[in-house]
Amino acid sequence: MTGIADGAGAVTATPSAGTPVPPPPHMGLGVSLQPADVTAKASGTFPYAADLWAEGLLWAAVLRSPHPHARIVSIDTSPAAGMPGVHAVVTHADVPGDASHGRRVADRPVFAKDLVRHHGEPIAAVAADHPDTARLAAAAIAVEYEVLEPVTDPEQAFAAEPLHPDGNLVRHIPLSFGDPEVVGEVIVEGLYRIGRQDPAPIGAEAGLAVPRPDGGVEIYTASTDPHADRDLAAACFGLEPERVKVVVTGVPGAMGEREDPGMQLPLGLLALRTGHPVKLAATREESFLGHAHRHPTLLRYRHHADAQGKLVKIEAQILLDAGAYADSSADTLAAAVSFACGPYVVPHAFIEGWAVRTNNPPSGHVRGEGAMQVCAAYEGQMDKLAAKLGLDPAEIRMRNAMATGDLLPTGQTVTCPAPVAEVLQAVRDAPLPDLPSDDPEDDWLLPGGPEGAGDPAAVRRGVGYALGMVHMLGAEGADEVSTATVKVTGPVATVICAAVETGQGFTTLARQIVQDVLGIEEVHVAPVDTDQPPAGPASRGRHTWVSGGAVERAAKMVRTQLLQPLAHKFGMSTELLTIADGKITSYDGVLSTTVEEALEGKELWATAQCRPHPTEPLDETGQGDAFVGLAFCAVRAVVDVDIEIGAVRVVEMTVAQDVGRVLNPRQLRTRIESGIAQGIGAALTENLRTSRGVIRHPDLTGYALPTAVDVPDIRIVKLVEERDVVAPFGAKAASAVPVVTSPAAVAAAVRAATGRPVNRLPIRPQAAVVNRT
């Protein structure tokens, strides 16, 4: 073999004359295996919850509060109950079990009883024989409210009257690391605000509840954590968990726990009350009102550095608006405080964080929660330091880049690979895109497009850098465990695991793992329901690590069962046998047979668990080994800004990422690109606006998602494959860290183009306007 250097300077093997070229692998890890459901999704036959039907079906509608804060004086359901076609109306009085629920804290009522705490809170639900009848009946319910003054400013929540029996403070973390008396030679300060981003799944929430003969109920919905949803529903319905079954339908997009329990629980109650299957397909408005959003955040920062730009101390205050209920705000705050300094070496850090209840829409888990908000702030501070010291923005980041063995401000040692300088250097060295030409055909490339653009002479180009980090799996002592079963019958393998496919590619990965371990090409992944052992939520790369690890262990156990008879027959250990390309061979070549022949007439199966090493909660000073693993990313954004009208066009996003190991190249690229697109939305367009707690324009006209025209060229210039030895396969979570990093990079590029501070996301047009006089 000879070698030639490719364009990136790497050496690529090329065959010598006459050397046969082996065919590329078509299955197993490292291959871009096509998802099994791609044809069904492309042809429109893939079943989502909104497509389901059952004999005797009724339709549900939920009455929601028009006020963000009010006392309920009375509820009269008789106008609805008396309408023809209405089968049942339920309120708080009809909840037989726990009247409140929550992911971490059970503080959210199924139906409001005495108080309404946010706009859109469920008051009652109706089941009728037609969806229009159900909606009309819900609207006919007479509710008398005593409207109260809403608390919508999180800074006012500290002194306001308690909005909830648990008070207004969800969590407070005063992180202290190092010497508080240290002062740097150069100090910069900043105030940053991050808006309310909505997950905005293209497929809105839907579900079907079917009563069971044993008095239980089955719920068909796009759940991302079915066992948690089952337990929550069983507690609400006053039933044993085994009498409630959650069946996962197709998930039409998910950025975390996207499902709204406020929809599932009324469905189950109505099905139990009527004895009929009951279906609800939420409108886009109901979707915006019901599910959780990214935490709006206020951040105050003070960075200290020496004359060479090395960080000395960081002080910060972080205030998260949790909305009306706690949900996952405690977890989000822990991530925000822990990563408040970014992937930089900081010897002294003092970060104080709060999450508070308000009468704003509920906040919860959205991809990159906590880490995204602080990344926009600490990267804004790094740009300020660079400007004050006269340094290149990339250079000041390079001088402070974290590496394996450094400490987080929580006192935890970074033991995983941390190629922060490497990914930054990769985007720094990448060629910049060409400037627009004067060709009239390129007018559409101007910010605002040909109809909305101003004077082309007012367009300025900016280049900005950002480094981001996220944690993988749960944190602070969360028991991360998943169970999987692998069954083999003849030439076909089946994987049974309750890990939900949310678009992250788990079902494809599970097939690849079994192919890799057992050499079996035809692998099926069973549908998910709660009759299977739990696998936990589909978030933070959990299923690649934990569920993928469980599948691998189960497959290896089946592999041992397959190879033991052969090894015994030939007087050798199973370790001396290999499986590759569907063939079993011994180290000495004496044994050579196909996997299919070895499996003939056999049925093998094994069940295994995967549980990562434990973590611990942060203590009273924010110290502790709270995270299992970390992932890092560098993004360079290039933007064109019309400085007269404030229009911004993102020209290119250049990405280098720490991925551990590439398991499926096509899926990995898709996940990174989708994360960048979501980050661009957070940077420029996505903000679920409220007025005194009331959501304004809860639709996809008022809430602007980036389209294909808004998403620029995305260049992935480097994927660092330095395997994390404690992770199965060595792979890392891939989709959250681009979401975290890209908004900060876009903001940095707009700063570079305009010289303006750009301290708010999404970036308002007025923030990019420059007085040319």
UniProtKB/TrEMBL annotation:
Residues 7-19, 445-455 have a biased composition (Low complexity). Residues 1-29, 430-455 are annotated as: Disordered. One of its GO terms (molecular function) is iron ion binding. It comes from the Bacteria. Pfam families: Ald_Xan_dh_C (PF01315), MoCoBD_1 (PF02738), MoCoBD_2 (PF20256). Residues 43-149 form the Aldehyde oxidase/xanthine dehydrogenase a/b hammerhead domain. PANTHER family: XANTHINE DEHYDROGENASE, XANTHINE DEHYDROGENASE SUBUNIT D-RELATED. This is Oxidoreductase.
